[in-house]
Design a protein that fits this description.
about 40% helix, two-stranded antiparallel sheet, about 15% strand, about 325 residues, single chain, TIM Barrel
Amino acid sequence: MDYHFLGRTGLKVSELCMGTQTFGWGADEPTAHRMASMFVDAGGNFLDTSNIYNEGQSETMLGNWLSQQPDRSRLVIASKVFFPVGDGPNDTGLTRKHILTQVEGSLRRLKTDYIDLYQMHCWDASTPLDETLRALDDLVRAGKVRYLGASNYTPSQLMRALMLSEMRGWARFDCLQPEYSLLVRSPEWELLPLCREQGVGFIAWSPLGGGWLSGKYRRDAAPPADSRVGRADRWDDLPEQRETERTWQIIDALWAIAEARGKTPAQIALNWVLCQPGVTAPIFGARTPQQLEQNLGCVGWRLTLEELARLDEASAIGLPSPYNFIARYTRKRDGA
């Protein structure tokens, strides 16, 4: 497995990041530990969790596994904070109180002295940005957090945070975790270019589009009953997971390329994300060792330019204003 620098930092992370949201949901503790070890044995060093995943079970299971590792320093552990953890008025958000409380809980569950990458799980419109950033800077200075990141921020929100951190001399966000896949390509409009320009790492969540790009679903066929989409309460879970003609065009293209290459649709979809300029790593999850082993097969090779073009065409979305206007009249540099 290859390794990439995390943005402008000197930290190197594996080209795949293992998401652990399934730990405690779909994967019991022995299975979770087995999959984490499989990932590391394959060369992975980057694992992502959150304080809210399965009411803390994900961090607890990951922490129990982490405590058994011979060299914790070789691993890059990422966690997050923002969403509610209780019914109290201060049990959510990116306030100083909530951040400082939750980081201690994450450290206990993870059984570690520090978190390598601590991410804000969502923009908090109710808390002053300087309150959040100052609290995070204090955590970095205290050694409890090594690097900072954000997730689910707009381009303007990310840029505001970067500028304020630079003005105040605070530790800044060195990584962004947005949703990005063949189904969700809007980060290409601003977020990816901004991260490349500012030296911010880019780790994509849901690179398989909530399971739609996994190879489980085919045109004119009922979804498997045990699949996420097959469950009645998940069919229309998110707009980008809904059945549309564009979705089927993407799936048809994935299957065609997968069959020609001797790969799975999931491997093709993950490799497409890996091939995008500025992407540090896609974050993938698995409920079983078999799923994990299949997903690991997305590295060690690359899609051809023709295959990338076919997938780009199948997943293309019309640009809204003003992006379409800018694209029409922007002068192209030589070689672009």
